[in-house]
Structures are given as structure tokens and as C-alpha cells.
């Protein structure tokens, strides 16, 4: 009962106790003296969103390898992530204690379209990819559309309203590319986040939705996934064997997925290579920790999407996304 | 607006143009920033801006008629006497100074200084209250908002010293 | 989603046993609510390490109490010093501060507390009874309906402008124009940001609120120092005033009830906030009043309506969170993090899998409001003494603390400067008879109006008739027209009878 009065007014005591306990467990990085304090993480999307939840399920495992240091989050969801990125690059110390956790796909599309005040990869480096979350097309359970072919057939007759999180998003590019290939018309309606996109499909305001597949699968029986924008559907068992869209239509749409990843200032890597090595090595080790998978699974998210990617993989993917965004610039940007 | 009787002093009305001037200036700037954007990115602002411009034109027309009748003049006043207006400017200046010194001195010291200076400026001379308010308030802010719920206010010598002294985590 | 009496009784018993989490939650919520700049969601995020370590039910009880208390106390500074503690309390200023000026600060506080607690209690009990129905409501009200609901709030600009329609509308339109700062809702392209990254998200609410209301009011207050007459409100607070406030609430019980339900409905819609509810409630309350001319002069229903609606929203926002798994607001999103961290998946299945949590949330809310009654009533008596503090102490305190508050919300020094800029704009507006509330309504409702309007137009694929395409929206349109025409017609009739 004293818990209620002591801890509630002093967050620091709880954090300190937890920190001390964890530090005693396994001070793996203690030799280098890094990290010497808690990490502060910029998340360029809103609180309670996908990135927030994923980061929190990951950091428990990571903390164990980092002297028990905690992760404190700040949220800057403005301008499709532009605010968070610019703020991180220009106003957070490049000391390896400041990190960013972002969704590389949509945010690199934003980078290509908005031309923000930072350069990739000169100013910012992704170094640990957490997941590969394929873009998919989904409908509500009682929708008249049973297969992706039904959707395309209808979209050839009339423009279909497609709920999406943002227009500059891999899933939006996917449906636009499908429309182009099939001469079907899709009208994108941005809802500014995964949650409101789901509601728009659920209440029938939009005919279909496009999102990363984990969100659609998390909804269980209320949503039906009709197809994925990747060469194979790793969640076939959980999505009633929804096919890869390219396989159905013989199209050649690039693999489109969201990938959440940890990022750091490139300057911090140059200045503190030893610190960066600690972060790289310890983050990779979290993937062997069953606790991380459990935490992920507990949220109803499919663990099949967890897939580690190192710095090189991340950079290659991010640069690919920038190219793709430039190809679809006319449809994705407000500049006329 | 009640009509003034002929022969009486015309009412100053210049101050009524400040808000419309700001509004028109901002609208013009808005229009300039959106000129190359797709219609959806600017439709809302353009419609509202257009209505605003019409309303301001009507206001100017109304004021023009009142001017012609000699009911109002273009003299501007906000109704305050000079002494109070000087105090207002002084207070705003103190707030601006507070923002400038905040990153250097930290929240507690800056707050204590600005409170003391502002109370002094407004004529408070009761020393126990002056010192009491300017010490107790920043300490309360420190204890509840900075230590208690961990808001990340700019930290200065006082906060660092207390963190070292009391061994508070998270305030380094 | 069935709930029997025995389960309900057990849930109440469990919630009462969590008093040790509820009481600190309420206390912290009250403090945070009074300070503009400290939002419940930010406080809860900062406290996540604590709540995640707690047992699920205790953590929920703590978070819910903090959230509800926060909505209640936002009205305190609005009434006492014309500074809304949060956007939801901005409408409370209109009549609340006028009551204070008439020497009725304590009655106004009691009105606000009772309306808040009653509004919260009525709606949380209503949710327990109507949950399956309410869960559907969130799915029925779509973008088109939202456009009309927001328009109800926007018509308040015209209502406030009654004295000088032209200047009132200019103020409102200026606010709407300022509300268009920031990235557009379709392509996320920044507009009119003056190159400031801090404005990409749009004009931040807290510094604008602090500037327009708090700083400008502090500058106005200086005049009292020179008038020489002691302000009417500086008489000693007495218990008799509390009783008088309670009696007024009994008199206006119907007003409390229906505005609370209005808040509940608005709260259920994901993305709609407390400020829409309070402005719409104020506007509707004035519309159906027999004495609309008294609004704005310190009329008790002008305090009751927004406060009761504001607290109705609290139960509303949790409905979509629990029933469809989509948070109704940012505070609800933080609560969802805690639930998911504990392995509880919110959504329809929650009611079968863990009814103790699903229904328990609303029982906890009821219990939190019950606990609040004895906690806040004495507060009315003592808080109202704030108005007796001499100007040379209160003005520096308001200025210093609100400028600090402007920083707290987003932790940008830029926001402090912005608060000062809006303080000057607010002062000029007040002194040249432009209504600051009209400007604020524009800034608050402008961005969400644009969001829903453009979404509707996208849905309609450019056809403006989409706005009249749904039966519910059409009913709302009809009500909107009535609410605009009725007062004009009534006024004409009054003028005729007078003649």
C-alpha cells in the first residue's frame, strides 16, 4: 500500500530501483563506461502508435545489455515524421545516448518528397532493423470483396476509396502501382495513422484499406487480408493464404514493406566508434532473447515479422525507398 | 456603435485596425506559401482567407463612413494610462529576459529572479512576502514538476547541485 | 457484453479497494489540470515506468483518476483568473470569470465541480448500461457527420460576436486562418510556418491558450491597481456560498444531464476532443435557454454546460478504446500501452476474456468521481481565495508560471516566445473589442474542421454533395440550420412584442 504513495509521486525511485536491479544482473557494457546514463529516444510518430509499442517491447531486452540504462521516449509526429527527424538531427546531442526509432519506409518517402533539412545517410544512420512488415490490402470481415481480384474488378468499374495511413507510405505506393498496372482506379484517403485507418475500413467509410500487415492481423477475425505487396506472404497461415499481389496479376511491383529501425547520428558513429559498436552488438543480441518475442506476441502482433537487419541492410532499404518515392513523386506530393 | 453627437470629440478607432491588419498580413503570407500546392492542400485556407478579406473590406468601409461623418478618428489607444503601459512593457521585457537566461541559469534560479523583479516592478515592498514568494514558488516547481513528475525543464547550477547532493537519478 | 448485478457489485467492491491508487491519481490530476501546459497524456507518459510496474487494475485506476480529475480542475483557473487549464475549459471562462467578477467565485467553482462530477458520474454509469450501443456509435459517426458537429462549435463564433458581428467574425476568421498553419492533412506539406519546425504540427494549443487568455489577462489586471476600488470578488469565502452553488446545481439538473450526454457522444468519436464538446455544449445550452441574453454575463448554465460536457467526454473516449481497440484520444492511447504491456488485447474480445478489465474501467471511473466529491468541495472554498491576492503578487505569479507552462507541453523554448506573442495579440484584441474566445475557437477547431472536410471531399471524390449523403448528417444539418435561425427569429419576435 505504501507503493501507491511513494512510487507515484517519485517516478525516479521506481526507475532507479529497476535500473539498479537490472544493472546488477548483467553489466555487459560496463567496461567501456558506456552508456553512462539513460537513453533519450525520438519517435517521429504519435504515442500509442505502432513504433511506440514496438520500441517498448524491444527495449526491455536491450536494457539488460546496457548497464540497465532505461529508454525515455519523446514523440514528434508532425509532418509525416519530418519534425521528429529534423529535431533529432539538429537539436539532439550526437553522443550515442540519443537515438531515433522510426519507420524507415514511410519516413524515407517523406525525406524524398519534402526535402527536409538533413541528409541521409550523411547525418543519420539506421543500424538495427526490427521487423519486416509487408504492406497489404485488407477489407472488413463482412465486405463483399472476397479476393483481391474482386477489388480490382470493381475498381475498373468505379474508383474505390482506399483508407491509408498517409499518402507518402509504401502501402499507398503499392495500391497506386496496382491501379496503374491493371487500369483500375484507386482513390487514396489518408487517415493520419494506423488506428483511424482501421476504423475507416471497419465502419465502411472506405471500401478497402492498405496498411502494414501486422496491424491488420492484430485485428483478428474482424479484418480479412486479401493480398500482400511482397514476393511471399510470410503470414499466409494467419491471413487465410492471402496471395502475393504480383503472383495474382503478373505485375512487377517492388517489395513494399514497413521496417522499424533504431537510428543514430552519423556523427556519433565517427566520434564514438566504440559506443556505436556496443549499440550494434547489444541490439543484435536482443533478437535471441525469448522475452522480446513474448512481449511482441503479447500485443497480438505476429512474431513472424520480426527480422533483424544490420546497418548495411537498413541503408540499402532506405535508399531504395527514396528511389521509389521519386518515381511516384507526382501522385504523392502536393507540389504542382 | 453608438453615433457621436456632432461637435463632440471623435472616438479614437485606430486600435480597431490592428487585429484586421495582422489578419490581412498573415492571410497574404499564407496565400504566398501555398500558391504552388495541390488544391486540397490549400482549399480550406484560401476560402477562409477570402471571407476574411471581404469582412475586413466591410470593416474598412464602415469605418470610412464613420470617419466621413466625424464620429471617429484614426487615433489609436488601448485605453491604458502611460504609467500602466510602461509597467506592461516592463513585465513583457522581464518575461523575454526570463526566456533568455533560462538555458543558462536553469529553471529554479531564473524563476526566482523573474518573480522577484516583477513583484518589485509592480510596487511590492513587503520584504518577507517578496522573498518568500520568489523562493517558495521555484522550489515548489522544482520539487513537484522537475523531481516529482520529471518534466524536462532547462537545468542550471541549482538543479545540478541538488541532484548531486540528493543523488537524484535522471537529472544529470 | 452482458453484465449482471453480482459482477457489477464485485467490480465496485474491487474498485473501492483500490483507493490507494485512486487518491494520489486524483490529487496529481487536480494539480496537473490547474496548470496550463501540463496535459494528462504527457504526465501519464512520464509516469509509464511506474504504471507499467504496477498491477494492471491498480495502474488503470490510477490513470483513470488522474485523467478525470484533470478534466475537472481545468475549470478552476478558468473561473478564478480567466485562464483555462486546458482547451476543454476554454468555454468555461466565458461565464465563469464573469461570475468571479460579480463576486461569485465560490459559487462558480461549486457549479463547475458539481457539474463535472455529476457529468462524469452520469456518463460512466450510462456507459455501463449502454456499452454495446455506444460501441456502435463510434462506427456510425463518420467524417461527414463530424464536419457538421464541428460546425456547431464554429457557430459559437457568431454567437459571441452578437454585439458587433463584423468584428466578431473577423476575430473568428483570423483564428481559423491561424489554425491553417502547419502541414496539410492530405500530403503532409508544411504551409505558412515561417520556416519554423515548431509550427509544422500547426499552431500549438497550449502557448496560444496561455498567450490569449493568461498573459493578456495578467496585463489587463494591472488596471485594477490604479482604479483604487477593491474588486468586488475580494470578499471572504463562506460555506454559505458553497451551499448556494449546490442549490443552483439542483436547479439546473437537466442541463447537467443532457450536456453530459452530449460530451459522451462527442467523446466516443475517435479523434474528437473535449474542446469540441464544451464549445458545442455551451452553444446548445444558450440556444435552448429562455434567457440567452444572460450568457456571457456570469450566467450559471454557462459554467455548467461546458464543464459537464467536458467530463462526459472522459467516459466517451474510453468506449472505442475498450470496445473496438482504437484509442479515442491520446490519453486513452497511453492507457492502451499499459494494457498491452500486460498482455491484455483491447477490443470486442476483451469483454468475454477479461470483463473485470473491460467493464472495470468504467466502474473505476464511477468510483473515482465518487471519491472526488469530498476532495473538491472544500477546495471551492479555499481556492476561491486566490482572487483576494493583491495584483502585485498574482500578476507576476501568473506570468511566470504560465510562461513555464508554455514550455512544459512540448519542451520548446520557442513555445514560450509564442505565448508572449499571443499575449500581446490577446491584449490588443481585448482592448479593441475583438473576442479572444472567437480567435481561440478558430485556432482549436480550424485544423480538425479542415481534416474532416478534406477527408469527406476525398471520400466523395471531389463531389461536395457528399456532405449531404448520409441520413444522420442530414438530420445534423437540419439541426444546425435551426440552431442558427432560431435565435434570429426569437430576437425578431421579441423586438416585435416590445414594439
Compact description:
The complex is a heterotrimer of chains A (336), B (172) and C (499). By secondary structure, chain A is of the alpha/beta class. Chain A has helices spanning 2-9, 11-25, 50-63, 82-91, 104-114, 148-157, 170-182, 194-202, 213-218, 245-249, 266-271, 273-286, 290-298, 311-327, 329-332; strands at 39-43, 71-75, 98-103, 124-131, 133-140, 160-164, 186-190, 208-212, 223-228, 257-258, 260-265, 306-309.
What does this structure look like?
The complex is a heterotrimer of chains A (336), B (172) and C (499). By secondary structure, chain A is of the alpha/beta class. Chain A has 2 domains: 11-132 and 259-332, Bordetella uptake gene, domain 1 (D-Maltodextrin-Binding Protein, domain 2, 3-Layer(aba) Sandwich); 133-257, D-Maltodextrin-Binding Protein, domain 2. Chain A contains 15 helices and 12 strands. In chain A, the strands form 2 sheets. Chain A has a 6-stranded mixed sheet, with helices on both faces. In chain A, strands 5, 6, 7, 8, 9 and 10 form a 6-stranded mixed sheet that branches. The longest helix of chain A has 17 residues, at 311-327. Chain A is globular. The termini of chain A are far apart. Chain B starts with 10 loop residues before the first strand and ends in a 6-residue tail after the last helix. Chain B folds into 2 domains: 11-73; 82-166, no CATH class. Helices cover 70% and strands 2% of the residues of chain B. Chain B is mainly alpha-helical and 172 residues long. Chain C is mainly α and 499 residues long. Chain C has one domain (5-498). Helices cover 75% and strands 1% of the residues of chain C. Chain C has 23 helices and 2 strands. A two-stranded antiparallel sheet of chain C has the order 1-2. In chain C, strand 1 (182-183) and strand 2 (190-191) form a beta hairpin. In chain C, helix 5 (56-73) runs antiparallel to helix 15 (300-324), helix 7 packs antiparallel against helix 15 (300-324) and helix 9 (143-160) crosses helix 14 (274-287). The radius of gyration of chain C is 22 Å and the shape is globular. Chain C starts with a helix and ends with a helix. Chains B and C meet through helix 1, helix 2, helix 3 and helix 4 of B and helix 2, helix 10, helix 11, helix 20 and helix 21 of C.
Amino acid at each position: 500500500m505504501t507503493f501507491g504513495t511513494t512510487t507515484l509521486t517519485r517516478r525516479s525511485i521506481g526507475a532507479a530501483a529497476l535500473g539498479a536491479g537490472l544493472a546488477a544482473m548483467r553489466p555487459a557494457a560496463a567496461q567501456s563506461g558506456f552508456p553512462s546514463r539513460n537513453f533519450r529516444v525520438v519517435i517521429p510518430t504519435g504515442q500509442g502508435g505502432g513504433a511506440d509499442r514496438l520500441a517498448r517491447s524491444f527495449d526491455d531486452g536491450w536494457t539488460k545489455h546496457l548497464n540497465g540504462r532505461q529508454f525515455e521516449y519523446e514523440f514528434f509526429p508532425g509532418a509525416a515524421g519530418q519534425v521528429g527527424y529534423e529535431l533529432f538531427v539538429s537539436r539532439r546531442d550526437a553522443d550515442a545516448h540519443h537515438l531515433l526509432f522510426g519507420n524507415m519506409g514511410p519516413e524515407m518517402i517523406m525525406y524524398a518528397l519534402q526535402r527536409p533539412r538533413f541528409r541521409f545517410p550523411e547525418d543519420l544512420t539506421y543500424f538495427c532493423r526490427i521487423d519486416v512488415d509487408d504492406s497489404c490490402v485488407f477489407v472488413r470481415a463482412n465486405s463483399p470483396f472476397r479476393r483481391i481480384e474482386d477489388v480490382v474488378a470493381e475498381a475498373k468499374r468505379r474508383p474505390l476509396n482506399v483508407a491509408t495511413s498517409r499518402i507518402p507510405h509504401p502501402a499507398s505506393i503499392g495500391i497506386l502501382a496496382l491501379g496503374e498496372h491493371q487500369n483500375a482506379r484507386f482513390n487514396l484517403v489518408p487517415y493520419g495513422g494506423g488506428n483511424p485507418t482501421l476504423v475507416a475500413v471497419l465502419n465502411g467509410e472506405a471500401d478497402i484499406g492498405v496498411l502494414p500487415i501486422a496491424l491488420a492481423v492484430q485485428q483478428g477475425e474482424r479484418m480479412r487480408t486479401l493480398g500482400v505487396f511482397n514476393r511471399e506472404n510470410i503470414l499466409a497461415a494467419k491471413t487465410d493464404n492471402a496471395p502475393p499481389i504480383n503472383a495474382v496479376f503478373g505485375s512487377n511491383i517492388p517489395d513494399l514493406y514497413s521496417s522499424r529501425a533504431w537510428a543514430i547520428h552519423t556523427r556519433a558513429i565517427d566520434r564514438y566508434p566504440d559506443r556505436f559498436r556496443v549499440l550494434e552488438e547489444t541490439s543484435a543480441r536482443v533478437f535471441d532473447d525469448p522475452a522480446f518475442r513474448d512481449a511482441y506476441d503479447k500485443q497480438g502482433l505476429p512474431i513472424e515479422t520480426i527480422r533483424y537487419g544490420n546497418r548495411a541492410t537498413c541503408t540499402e532499404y532506405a535508399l531504395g525507398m527514396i528511389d521509389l518515392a521519386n518515381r511516384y513523386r507526382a501522385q504523392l506530393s502536393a507540389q504542382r | 456603435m453608438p453615433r457621436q453627437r456632432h461637435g463632440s470629440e471623435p472616438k479614437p478607432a485606430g486600435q480597431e485596425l490592428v487585429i484586421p491588419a495582422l489578419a490581412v498580413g498573415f492571410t497574404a503570407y499564407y496565400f504566398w506559401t501555398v500558391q504552388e500546392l495541390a488544391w486540397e492542400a490549400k482549399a480550406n485556407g484560401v476560402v477562409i482567407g477570402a471571407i476574411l478579406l471581404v469582412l475586413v473590406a466591410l470593416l474598412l468601409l464602415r469605418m470610412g463612413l464613420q470617419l466621413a461623418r466625424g464620429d471617429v478618428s484614426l487615433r489609436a489607444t488601448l485605453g491604458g494610462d502611460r504609467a500602466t503601459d510602461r509597467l506592461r512593457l516592463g513585465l513583457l521585457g522581464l518575461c523575454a529576459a526570463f526566456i533568455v537566461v533560462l538555458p543558462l541559469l536553469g529553471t529554479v534560479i531564473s524563476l526566482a529572479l523573474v518573480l522577484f523583479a516583477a513583484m518589485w516592478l509592480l510596487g511590492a515592498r513587503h520584504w518577507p512576502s517578496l522573498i518568500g514568494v520568489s523562493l517558495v514558488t521555484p522550489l515548489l516547481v522544482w520539487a513537484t514538476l522537475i523531481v516529482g513528475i520529471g518534466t524536462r525543464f532547462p537545468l542550471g547550477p541549482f538543479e545540478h547541485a541538488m541532484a548531486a547532493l540528493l543523488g537524484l537519478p535522471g537529472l544529470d | 457484453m452482458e453484465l449482471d448485478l453480482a459482477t457489477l457489485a464485485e467490480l465496485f467492491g474491487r474498485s473501492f479497494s483500490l483507493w490507494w491508487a485512486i487518491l494520489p491519481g486524483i490529487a496529481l490530476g487536480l494539480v496537473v489540470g490547474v496548470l496550463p501546459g501540463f496535459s494528462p497524456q504527457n504526465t501519464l507518459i512520464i509516469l509509464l515506468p511506474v504504471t507499467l510496474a504496477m498491477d494492471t487494475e491498480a495502474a488503470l485506476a490510477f490513470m483513470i483518476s488522474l485523467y478525470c480529475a484533470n478534466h475537472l480542475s481545468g475549470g478552476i483557473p478558468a473561473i478564478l483568473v480567466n485562464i483555462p487549464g486546458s482547451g476543454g475549459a476554454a468555454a468555461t471562462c466565458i461565464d465563469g470569470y464573469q461570475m468571479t467578477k460579480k463576486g461569485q467565485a465560490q459559487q462558480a467553482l461549486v457549479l463547475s465541480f458539481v457539474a463535472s462530477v455529476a457529468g462524469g458520474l452520469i456518463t460512466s454509469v450510462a456507459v455501463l448500461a449502454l456499452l454495446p450501443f455506444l460501441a456502435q456509435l463510434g462506427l456510425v459517426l463518420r467524417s461527414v457527420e463530424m464536419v457538421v458537429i464541428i460546425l456547431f462549435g464554429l457557430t459559437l463564433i457568431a454567437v459571441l460576436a452578437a454585439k458587433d458581428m463584423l468584428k466578431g467574425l473577423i476575430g473568428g476568421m483570423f483564428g481559423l486562418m491561424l489554425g491553417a498553419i502547419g502541414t496539410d492533412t492530405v500530403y503532409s506539406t508544411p504551409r505558412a510556418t515561417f520556416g519554423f519546425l515548431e509550427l509544422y504540427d500547426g499552431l500549438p494549443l497550449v502557448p496560444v491558450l496561455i498567450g490569449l487568455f493568461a498573459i493578456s489577462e495578467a496585463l489587463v489586471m494591472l488596471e485594477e491597481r490604479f482604479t483604487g476600488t477593491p474588486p468586488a470578488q475580494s470578499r471572504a469565502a463562506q460555506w454559505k456560498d458553497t451551499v448556494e452553488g449546490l442549490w443552483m446545481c439542483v436547479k439546473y439538473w437537466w442541463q447537467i444531464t443532457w450536456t453530459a450526454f452530449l460530451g459522451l457522444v462527442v467523446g466516443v468519436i475517435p479523434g474528437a476532443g473535449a474542446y469540441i464538446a464544451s464549445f458545442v455544449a455551451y452553444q446548445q445550452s444558450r440556444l435552448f435557454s429562455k434567457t440567452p441574453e444572460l450568457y456571457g454575463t456570469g450566467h450559471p448554465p454557462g459554467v455548467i454546460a461546458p464543464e459537464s460536457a467536458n467530463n462526459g467526454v472522459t467516459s466517451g473516449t474510453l468506449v472505442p478504446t475498450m470496445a473496438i481497440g482504437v484509442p479515442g484520444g491520446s490519453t486513452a492511447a497511453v492507457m492502451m500501452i499499459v494494457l498491452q504491456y500486460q498482455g491484455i488485447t483491447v477490443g470486442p474480445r476483451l469483454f468475454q476474456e477479461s470483463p473485470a478489465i473491460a467493464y472495470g474501467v468504467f466502474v473505476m471511473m464511477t468510483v473515482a468521481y465518487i471519491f472526488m466529491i469530498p476532495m473538491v468541495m472544500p477546495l471551492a472554498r479555499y481556492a476561491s481565495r486566490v482572487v483576494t491576492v493583491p495584483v502585485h503578487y498574482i500578476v507576476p505569479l501568473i506570468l511566470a508560471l504560465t510562461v513555464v507552462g508554455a514550455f512544459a507541453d512540448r519542451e520548446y523554448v520557442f513555445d514560450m516566445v509564442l505565448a508572449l506573442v499571443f499575449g500581446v495579440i490577446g491584449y490588443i484584441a481585448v482592448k479593441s473589442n475583438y473576442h479572444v474566445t472567437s480567435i481561440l475557437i478558430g485556432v482549436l477547431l480550424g485544423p480538425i474542421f479542415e481534416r474532416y472536410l478534406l477527408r469527406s471531399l476525398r471520400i466523395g471524390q471531389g463531389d461536395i454533395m457528399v456532405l449531404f449523403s448520409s441520413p444522420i448528417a442530414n438530420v445534423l444539418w437540419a439541426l444546425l440550420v435551426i440552431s442558427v435561425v432560431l435565435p434570429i427569429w426569437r430576437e425578431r419576435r421579441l423586438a416585435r412584442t416590445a414594439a
